[in-house]
Amino acid sequence: MTKTPVISAVILAAGQGTRMRSSLPKVLHRLSGKPLIQYSLDAVQGLSSNPPVVVIGHGADAVRSAVGENARFVVQQPQLGTGHAVMSAEQLLKDEADILIVTTADMPLLRHETLRKLVEAQLGNNGPITLLTGFADDAHGFGRIVRAADGSVQAIVEEAAATPAQLAIRELNLSIYCFDAKWLWGALKRIKLSAKGEYYLTDVVAIAREDGLTVQANVLSDFNEAIGINTRVHLAEAEALLRQRINRQWMEFGVTLIDPAATYIESTVQIGRDTIIGPNTHLRGKTVIGEETTIGPNCILEDAQIGSRCTILAAVIEKAVVEDNVSMGPFAHLRKGAHLMKGVHMGNFGEVKDSTLHPGVKMGHFSYIGNADIGENTNIGAGTITCNFDGVNKNPTVIGANVFIGSDTMLVAPLNIGENARTGAGSVVTHDVPAGEVVVGVPARPHRKVEKSD
Ligand code: UD1
Ligand code: MG
Questions:
Q1: Could you identify the atom of ligand 1 that is nearest to the CA of residue 203?
Q2: Which pLDDT score is estimated for 17?
Q3: Ligand lying nearest the CA atom of residue 104
Q4: pTM (predicted TM-score)
Q5: How many Å apart are CA 358 and CA 379, to the nearest integer?
Q6: How many Å apart are CA 234 and CA 228, to the nearest integer?
Q7: Ligand 1 mutation pick, 19, 80, 104, 167, max ligand atoms within 8 A of CB
Q8: What fold characterizes domain 254-446?
Q9: Residues of 137-165 as b/e, b for ≥16 C-beta within 10 angstroms?
């Protein structure tokens, strides 16, 4: 029985990325909510038998701490080219790898599927290299693929060294490879220093030919996958393409996007069927949305958990939970720890933080609720404020079920208001209110009912 080959992956990320003009290492610039390098890690995920090896150099510490446990690292210092970069992983991988995937950290649109096909091609290849190529009209900056008469790959010629005839070639090297690892370590040592003083990984193609071995290529069908990020212009182009890709997936899944070009959904978000997303809506981080919910126009949701059949208009929601059948907005703000339970209505110009609004609570207009627990079916009148901060501490407000808080009530915390209690419009409540009591005035006092005499 032949043993299953061990597949390892190397991600090249030691370059400086000068053209980003940034103090942040290039591969840590964010694209749709994730650092660039995360896309390469995700693309190789499940292909390699062990965690990928990331070759770091410029900004090594920052890259290492951003990636953390999900990879192994080797430091390439100084950076003497792509061939030299792969060589720096030899010590770590020479006894481990049978097949080696080499990819770069600045091609975030490259699909997992494309790499999987490359690995499959190499597993069926008698020669030591399968590389990824693509055709593009604008070949600027790419190595050109020179094919032999029989159609096999003969060499990769870097732009600076290419003849005019070679420059006209439109088949380009995308810097994504799959190698027979045992062969590669030997071949890397045979690379000669280039005129630029670098060891080019691309030279191993000619070395394989010298040994009489054939080199295969998989051709990319969607060249967009090959977009490399070198400048912030590329970053914005990639963002737009990624957005299209994500939006298309959601539409195909059964989510309506009224205007996909103005809908910004990060790759980490989950959305249920028959949900409708209006324009200028940003869904970020670990946001999860249920079914048949309408969100937008004009919403920003980050790490938000939203139920089904909700209506959310012009709202900002951060690290908050919204259960089924809630209506919110326009101009509503949920901050960390806000929890709107089933059927809550939160109207315009409201803010809720670190508070639970139990089922059926209505908070129609201009209110701030912080550090509070509001009982079922309680009505919060327009302009109600929980005065939760005394300058030092945040104090809690606990309101029972079926309470009626009159317009413009100031609830000076810490405070307990029992169920079925009422506060008069404009009252400033400084003491606890027992169940069923009516309080009015400044400071609020019990309101004696005047019995009607006949
Ligand atoms: C490389 C290829 C070129 C290909 C192009 C596709 C070589 C010699 N040329 O050129 O054929 O068309 O990519 O984009 O390989 N890196 C290191 N250490 C180094 C040098 C580079 O880790 O010493 C990393 C970079 O961070 C980057 C990747 O390798 O992620 C590619 O390096 P780059 O300098 O961009 O190569 P290109 O000149 O674009
Ligand atoms: Mg490059």
A1: 8
A2: 87
A3: 1
A4: 0.88
A5: 11
A6: 7
A7: 104
A8: UDP N-Acetylglucosamine Acyltransferase; domain 1 (2.160.10)
A9: eebeebbbbbeeeeeebbbbbbeeebeee
* CATH of region 7-226: 3.90.550.10
Q: What do you get for the CA distance between the two ends of the chain, in Å?
A: 104
Average pLDDT over every residue of 85-104: 98
User: Residue 90: what pLDDT?
Assistant: 98
Distance from residue 165's CA to the centre of ligand 2 (Å): 22
- Per the annotation, the verdict on 365 as an active-site residue is yes
Q: Find residue 177's DSSP bridge partners.
A: 102, 131
Q: Which pLDDT tens digit goes with each residue over 232-289?
A: 999 999 999 999 999 999 999 999 999 999 999 998 999 999 999 999 999 999 999 9
User: Is the pLDDT assigned to residue 454 strictly greater than 80?
Assistant: no
Identify the active-site residue in 282, 365, 431, 447.
Answer: 365
Quick: pLDDT tens for 378-409: 999 999 999 999 999 999 999 999 999 999 99
- 404 neighbors 423 (Cβ within 8 angstroms): yes
Average pLDDT over residues 9-35: 93
Query: What are the residue ranges spanned by the domains of the chain?
Result: 7-226, 254-446
3-state DSSP of 172-197: EEEEEEEEEHHHHHHHHCCCCCCCCC
Show the tokens assigned to 381: 């009148």
Token pair, residue 358, equals 């139990």
Q: Does the beta carbon of 156 lie inside 6 Å of ligand 1?
A: yes
* pLDDT value of residue 380: 98
Report strand pairing: 438-440 vs 445-446.
antiparallel
Q: Comparing C-alpha atoms, which of 141, 38, 41 is closest to residue 101?
A: 41
Backbone angles phi and psi of 313, in degrees to 5: -120, 130
In contact, 202 and 194? CB cutoff 8 Å: no
Give the residue carrying structure tokens 């298309």: 248
Q: What is the mean pLDDT of the chain?
A: 96
Task: Report phi then psi at 56, rounded to 5.
Answer: -115, 160
Q: Is 450's pLDDT higher than 80? A: no
Token representation of residue 92: 């770590």
How far is ligand 2, taken at its centre, from the CA of residue 86, in Å?
A: 15
Cβ of 25 closer than 6 Å to ligand 1, yes or no, is no
